[in-house]
Amino acid sequence: MTPENAAFCPVYRAIGVLQEKWVLHIVRALLGGEKGFNELARAVGGCNSATLTQRLEHLEHLHLIHKRTEDAQVKLARSVYSLTPAGQELQGVIDAIDLWARRHLNLPETAAEGGCAGSEPVLR
How far from the centroid of its chain's Cα atoms is residue 5's Cα? Predict the structure, then answer.
């Protein structure tokens, strides 16, 4: 695909967004409901705070997540993140990845039965 055509291909553009490191991990964590920054960092696991902040700002700019600030008058206000309707639509992408992984990655029986460690199963 030429660079000129890539700008107009929705699949190419979507892959560009979703391939960024931690993006799908963040979306997957938020599919379980809203989370504060520290809770989200633990759910994602392994992402440093600066990178997580950068990814969250980018996803907010793309209207995939919403940031709500609690106790805005307090010096250390709490930020709470949730998926927008557009972000929630990525459930299908996560489900498709889950199904593909179960079919093709020779997962151990426990992983195939109960979802990923430390998370809720994503298949409905």
Answer: 27
